[in-house]
TrEMBL record:
The keyword Lyase belongs to this UniProt entry's keyword annotation: no
Modification type 4-aspartylphosphate: residues: 51
Keyword DNA-binding: yes
Organism: Duganella zoogloeoides
Lineage: Bacteria, Pseudomonadati, Pseudomonadota, Betaproteobacteria, Burkholderiales
Keyword terms: Cytoplasm, DNA-binding, Phosphoprotein, Transcription, Transcription regulation, Two-component regulatory system
PROSITE patterns noted in UniProt: OMPR_PHOB (PS51755), RESPONSE_REGULATORY (PS50110)
InterPro entries according to UniProt: CheY-like_superfamily (IPR011006), OmpR/PhoB-type_DNA-bd (IPR001867), Sig_transdc_resp-reg_receiver (IPR001789), WalR-like (IPR039420), WH-like_DNA-bd_sf (IPR036388)
Name of this protein: Response regulator transcription factor
Domain (OmpR/PhoB-type): residue spans on this chain: 124-218
Compartment(s) of residence: Cytoplasm
Main location: cytoplasm
Transmembrane segments: none
DNA-binding region: 124-218
Length: 222
């Protein structure tokens, strides 16, 4: 999943970006609410982390504008002040959760998963597709009861395709889920990841749709 981090403290922002990348996310980082709003118009983010206390336009104002513009993904507000009125105002404006600084990176990752799960309408951190089981929290995949080792990017592609089973996803859509700003992307990177997934999970799982992209079909009705 690709995330947008809004944090004006360079040290905290970089540390948070690194920590989230180690948790398997592609992370774009901006320093202001204005830049966050621009990025959200240009890219498709599964979750946006908004610091309330930003210079200029604050995070609460940005949250109102994000929701008014039609953004339906998860929004997690990060704040240095744990005040009930702030939390109430943020939740009423469309925030999915709040986290108070200083925070633990593992807790942040868990709250992101929870907020994204609710935004996607899922009730569990586990996806099942025929004999394939994906544990989102622990990034584990089993097929027919056998654990299959995947790289972070292979896992991200598989998760995105299973979540949108039946929909054809283009190479560009998959790349946007895998890479953040500044990452070098090989022209055949997605094809290589798809090739490895087919070797590990079976060639029939991922279908190529000529000149369009790739698709994991919905499971057959019982």
């Amino acid at each position: 999943m690709r995330l947008l981090l809004t944090e004006d403290d360079p040290q905290l922002g970089r540390a948070t970006q690194i920590g989230l990348e180690q948790n398997g996310y592609a992370v774009d980082w901006v320093l202001s609410a204005e830049h966050a709003l621009t990025a959200a118009r240009l890219h498709d983010y599964g979750c946006i982390l908004l610091d309330i206390g930003l210079p200029g336009q604050d995070g609460m104002q940005a949250l109102h504008l994000l929701r008014d513009s039609g953004y339906t993904g998860a929004v997690l507000m990060v704040t240095a002040r744990d005040q009930v009125p702030d939390r109430i105002a943020g939740l009423d404006a469309g925030a999915d959760d709040f986290l108070v600084k200083p925070f633990d990176l593992d807790e942040l990752a868990a709250r992101i998963r929870s907020a994204c799960r609710r935004a996607a309408g899922r009730v569990r951190e586990q996806l099942v597709h025929d004999d394939l089981v994906i544990d989102v929290a622990d990034r584990l995949v089993t097929k027919a009861g056998r654990q299959v080792a995947l790289t972070i990017k292979e896992f991200r592609i598989l998760l995105m395709m299973v979540e949108q089973a039946g929909r054809v996803l283009s190479r560009e859509q998959l790349e946007k889920n895998l890479y953040s700003w500044g990452d070098e992307v090989e022209s055949n990177a997605v094809q290589v990841h798809i090739h490895h997934l087919r070797k590990k999970l079976g060639r029939d799982l991922i279908r190529t749709v000529h000149a369009i992209g790739y698709c994991i079909d919905k499971p057959a009705a019982p």
